[in-house]
Amino acid sequence: MSNKKNSAVKMESIVSLAKRRGFIFQASEIYGGLAGFWDYGPLGVEVMNKLKAEWWNEVVTKSDNIYGVDSAIIQNPKLWEASGHVSSFTDPMVEDVKNGKRYRADQLAGVDSTDLNELKELLLDKKSPDGNQLSEPRFFNMMMQTWIGPVQDNSSVAYLRPETAGSIFTNYENVRETMRAKIPFGIAQIGKAFRNEISPRDFIFRVRELEQMEMQFFINPDEQEKTYEYWRNFAWKFLIENLGISEENLQWHEHDEKERAHYAVAAHDIYFNFPQGFKELWGTHNRTDFDLSNHQRVSGKNLAYFDETAHKRFLPYVVESSVGLGRMLLAVLTDAYHEEEINGEVRVVLKLKPELAPYLYAVSPLLKNKPGLVSKAREVYEILKKKYGSVMWDDNGNIGKRYRRQDEIGTPNCVVIDFETLEKNTVTVRNRDTTEQKRVSIDEL
Question: Tens digit of pLDDT for each residue in 67-106?
Fold first, then answer.
């Protein structure tokens, strides 16, 4: 048996498995779908919930000074003016002058740049993917706009939030006061964000509706370097130890001056080896006092913190730890995806960390037309269901087909009730990763 992982997992393999086994579906599929939007199926929801729980437990539950919030998706538009999103949350765009199709200018030019003059020069003699002339590059604001109330005019304009961080900053004072929090402390949030991407692509990697897991840590400016390194290391350790991702699939990328967001003085991303190559997964940023100073200026509310020990006031600096849940799921699926040859046949198996698998156990009667086996299998199923919760009943097809199905789902253990079970009260437990089978008494399960 070959147990070697493919050196390069193809995106079409992940997409096919995700649809076939109920992890991810195209949104509005019966109507042809909608670019940049995806639905998560029964198994996708299970894994997503476990990823969120794992992150929340490590960031919030285990901490004494990090608190959770769940804020509204639509906020006062002044929030996004103060944060710079109205003026600066843009991507460079070009249009096919013949058919009107829009593209990211930096992607067509093959550079990481938002300098319009540079992009104009690089695209001077370039055609669109359809072979037509391109317009000059211009900036496009990615915030999704809506209106509040019955009249759609400038006075009722609002935005779907482009990130979850904004409302963390506007709740900074509320959390500090109600939780009697002392600097340093953090505020965490998991929630939806919306970005009107010019060209969503690569499955769930770049989308228009996403879910973020973000934590903003408020600190004394004197502590910025030490705190920044702590949260960088936290992200790396979490991916390896909590999610079981192979370290060889991860690498650091430090933002240079051109790449850094307008608010950051330092920024590092963890890149994961996605099917399309090493791309951004998890970001750690030093946002300085950019956010609180702007919200203080625009709102008129004093957000300075008084340090009773040092007897001085200051605006806290912020170290941000931010990761997209969809990208995290894609990374976990890609890292876990294996194709192995067994007796001349190729099997697909998701070697997920057991705690992240949709089901810990699959329980099957060897034959579903034998009432004695079915009854005993149901008994075992109920025992495991009560103990673990994440247990699947599977009696569809022969035992070989069930094993292959559970391998693709990522179920760590298959429990089979056979005739020996009725005599000796033992079951066959088959391991997903090794395919080895052993007899275990029901009491030991």
Answer: 999 999 999 999 999 998 887 778 888 988 888 888 889 8
Is 53 within 8 Å of 224 (Cβ atoms)?
no
Domain boundaries, the chain: 11-76+150-335, 90-140, 359-444
Q: What are 219's strand-pairing partners?
A: 317
CATH code of domain 11-76+150-335:
3.30.930.10
Distance separating alpha carbons of residues 361 and 352, to the nearest angstrom: 13
pLDDT digits (tens, 9 = 90+) for 261-314: 777 899 999 999 999 999 999 999 999 999 999 999 999 999 999 999 889 999
pLDDT value for 6: 43
Looking at 3.30.40.230, 3.30.1490.20, 3.40.1170.60, 3.40.50.410, the CATH number of the domain 90-140 comes to 3.30.40.230
Scored b (16 or more CB within 10 A) or e, 278-292 reads ebbbbbbbbbbbbbb
Helices (runs of H) and strands (runs of E) counted in the chain: 14, 23
Do residues 304 and 188 touch, judged by C-beta distance below 8 A? no
- Topology, domain 359-444: Rossmann fold (3.40.50)
The C-alpha atoms of residue 17 and residue 13 are separated, in whole angstroms, by: 6
Residue 129: CB partners within 8 Å, gap ≥ 6?
Answer: 101, 103
Which helix (H) or strand (E) covers residue 372, if one does?
A: helix 371-388
Residue with token string 């100073």 = 293
- Residue 410 makes CB contacts below 8 A (sequence gap 6+) with 336, 349, 350, 351, 352, 356, 357, 358, 432
**Contact criterion met (CB below 8 Å) for 261 and 291:** no
State the sign of the Cα–Cα–Cα–Cα dihedral 387, 390, 396, 402: negative
